[in-house]
Amino acid sequence: MWRALAVILVAACGGGSEPGGDPSRDITSVAADAGKVRELAGKVTATRGSTTRTLALSNPVAADEVIDTGIDGSVVIELAHNNALWSLESGIKARVDQSVAWGLSKQDAAKSIEHATSSAGRHADRQAADTQVTAVEQPNAAAPAAAPKAAAPSTTAPPPRPPPTARPRTATSPRPPTTAKPPPPSDVDGAPAESPKSAGLPNAPGRQDIVDAMNKIKARLRRCADTTTATGTLKMLFKVGSDGRVTSVEIQQSPDPAIEQCAITVGKTLLLPRSQNGLTFSYPIVIN
Hints:
- The chain has about 290 residues and is α+β, with helices and mostly antiparallel strands.
- About 20% of the residues lie in helices and about 20% in strands.
C-alpha cells in the first residue's frame, strides 16, 4: 500500500506535459489560460519565475507571466476573462494581471484597446487607458440638471430711456486735396518707356571695349613693377558702374606685394563706355 502511494505522488510531481509536447503550454498548464496571443511581431517573451519562453501566435499566457517585447517586438493579447485586447509596443516589460486592460469590465473592454508604449511608460499607459474608458462612459453619465424655466415676462413697461446726449464735435482743419500723380510715360504697347539716358545703351561693355581700355593703362601698370625684380602675372579684378567708371579694384594675383598699391591706383583710372548695367571682369597682365 505504501509503495502504491509513492508511485502516485511521483506521477503527480512529474509535470503537466507529455514528452515532446508544446513547450509554450508547459509554463501555463498549472493555471487556467489568462489570455491568448492574437497579433505578434518580432521577438516577444513571457517569463514566469525563472522560466522564459518565446511567444508565438495563438500561444496562451498566464496571469502571473511577465511579457517582454524587447527592442523590436510588439504583441496584442486577448484576455480571457473580459475579452480586452492588450497591445504592447517595443521596449515594454509588464505582468499580465497588473495591466490596465486586466481590470476593465467586459463592456469597457469591448470598446477600447489598451496600448502600452515604451516612450510613455506604465504611468502614461494607465492614463491613456483611463482616458479611453472615460470617453466611452461619458454618454452614460447623468444628464445635466435642466435649466430653470425663464420667469414670466413682467407686464409693467420699463421706464423710457433718456435721449442720448449729443457729443460736441471738434472742428478739424480741412485736408488739402490730393493731387494724382501722372502715370509714367509708356510705349505704344503700354510698357514703361526707357529713360532717355539709358535708351540705346548696351547692357554691358563688350570684350573689345575692355581690351581697348586696358591697353591705355597697361604701360603704366608695367611701370609699377620697375621697383622690383620679380616677374610673373598681375591679375586684377575690376568692378565698373553703368557710367563706365571703376568702382573698385582688387588684386587676385601678384608677383610682388610691393607693386599692388600702385597697380590699384592706376587701375582706378580705367574708363569704359557707358552701359545699362556695368560689369565685373578679371584681367591678367604679364610682368617680365
